[in-house]
Amino acid sequence: MTDRYSQGMKVRREVLGDAHVDRAEAGKSDFDVPFQSLITEGAWGTVWASDGITRRERSMLTLALLAATGNFEEIAMHVRATARTGATKRDVMEAFQHVAIYAGVPRANHALKIAKATYEEMENE
């Protein structure tokens, strides 16, 4: 285990929460361990661990990029993470408005539907 992996796991838990990370870790297999190590070190131990921008800003960028590229599978997870990163509902709406203008209304609209449903679930938990 590298220092970057350890840092990545720490940041991942801070942003996504222990329950989410524990579920993901329990689902690992020999097949996907190399991939899980890559994202833990690269995404969480390098990008998310950087102090170049705030976690709030990083949440907004991540959500906008996911929506703009049509990678909707992780939007709910990153909306949930905003409870820990400080990005507000307004921040998320602003990010998706940028997506609408620069990447297309249908992608932003779909991302908004996912975010809306996720916020409703979070309020009911």
UniProtKB/TrEMBL annotation:
Transmembrane segments: none
GO molecular function: peroxiredoxin activity
Pfam families the record matches: CMD
Top-level taxon of origin: Bacteria
Gene3D superfamilies registered for this protein in UniProt: AhpD-like (1.20.1290.10)
NCBIfam families: decarb_PcaC
Entry-linked PANTHER family: 4-CARBOXYMUCONOLACTONE DECARBOXYLASE FAMILY PROTEIN (PTHR33570), CARBOXYMUCONOLACTONE DECARBOXYLASE-LIKE DOMAIN-CONTAINING PROTEIN (PTHR33570:SF2)
Name of this protein: 4-carboxymuconolactone decarboxylase
Organism, scientific name: Roseivivax halodurans JCM 10272
